Amino acid sequence: MDKKVFRPLRNEAKALLITICVCAFLGVLATFDLSEHHRAWRRAETWTEEQRRVASAEDAGSMRPLILAALINNTLIVALSSAGILILGISVASDSGSGLSAVKVLTWTILSLGILLVLLVLLYRLRLGSRFVLKGPIYDYNLRFQPPLVFALGGYPLATLGLTFNRVLRNRTGSSTKNKG
């Protein structure tokens, strides 16, 4: 009974859980600002040509799909993170090694989507250029990145580095104990 699947992998399961929870948290943080940017460009598409020219939103038709892709990617991160937490919990409760393998793949998929989100948002920021406000006919839309989005954009690469570092350390200590035995 003491040869359970998760006894030797306890640290790995913890690292996966922490990483998935961090990604879920970062995804929720990024959602607020990304949805505001999407809302601004969706509104800008409905403006007349004169209103778009005044607001510097002539490219609303191409900016909206870019921010929408980032928002969809972010939604996938949150959904997959929730699924990963659920699968990991069930795997630990049922002592299932196959569930842990699925969570490993899911975690690396989530981190890859996080890096893709960072790239999409950086491309969006480059396309925005010096525009920080869309002067709409009724409301002005702030296009500055808010601190939660900036935190999320920095968090995904750090989470990827953290899990990679954990994996390297685990492999290094695992190989050194094999050589001693």
UniProtKB/TrEMBL annotation:
Keywords: Membrane, Transmembrane, Transmembrane helix. The chain crosses the membrane at residues 66-93, 105-125, 145-165. This is Uncharacterized protein. It comes from bioreactor metagenome.
